[in-house]
Amino acid sequence: MSARSSMQSWFPGAWNRLRYAWWELRRIARPYATIEGIRVPLDRSMPLDFRNALYHGNYERAEMTALQATLEPEDVVMEIGTGLGFLAAFAATVVGSDHVVTYEANPSLTPLIKRTFRLNGVAPRGVNAILADRPGHTDFFVEPLFYNSSTTFSEGAQKITVRTLPLTDEMSRIKPTFVIMDVEGSESDLLPMMNLSSVNKVLIEFHPHVIGEERVAELVRLFNSHGLTNVPRFSSGVQSFFARTSGFLPQEQQV
């Protein structure tokens, strides 16, 4: 047994305090993590394991890899589910802040999103709202781990009220060519409402544990019906990339 394993086994409380103290020293020395050139703020409100994942560059790695390979300077980006603003900040460095609009339902993330943008010298348009079929307000359930928060009721989550904006109106106004979506199962309701006529690329995280494998298959067929084909080399696990641009497709899928 290593000295580290021995310490964890015999002094779990001391080990956790040591980990926390070490992380605090790192946070004070450098209050942000740098992942693929994008700075993401480290905050005491984040769970320790999540902070360490950020520090070691393990946050949204698959999504960033796909985005780096497929985002082009002429794209107009619409992101649904901002999170910490990591992908939106990167997108703004490629296409310019004026061509990135990002939506986040959880208002408690707004300060962190703004910090992410400031750290990277970008200013995408961030909107605190839920996209839906009509304007109004709806319930949103905030989880201790922010990335688990959703419109689905959950024991122990904090219920808040968030304004809704019509998805069709927002898409008509923005005319995105690239859509990024991670909405904890709400893709099941949102995708059938989307006008995909201007969209050439979609980077989406499916949530089969929420909506079921059969529903995911239906949504994949929906993309296909709009001329958007899954590109395996830019997809990983539940994160999938779809494109209608032949340059991203294998030779046998090009028309």
Q: How much beta, percentage-wise?
A: 15-25%
Distance between the termini: 58 Å
The biggest beta sheet, please? 7 strands, mixed
Low-confidence spans: pLDDT under 50, at least 5 residues?
Answer: none
Q: Specify the number of helices.
A: 10
Count of distinct strands: 12
- CATH fold category name: Rossmann fold
The assigned CATH architecture is: 3-Layer(aba) Sandwich
SSE string, helices as H and strands as E: HHEEHHEHEHEEEEHEHEHHEE
Judged by helices, strands and strand pairing, the structural class is alpha/beta
Instruction: Compute the number of structural domains.
Output: 1
- In the CATH hierarchy, what is the class? Alpha Beta
Report mean pLDDT, rounded to a whole number.
89
User: What overall geometry do the principal axes of the alpha carbons give?
Assistant: globular
Name given to the CATH homologous superfamily? Vaccinia Virus protein VP39
- Largest sheet, order of strands side by side? 5-4-3-9-10-12-11
Indicate the radius of gyration in whole angstroms: 19 Å
Helix content: 25-40%
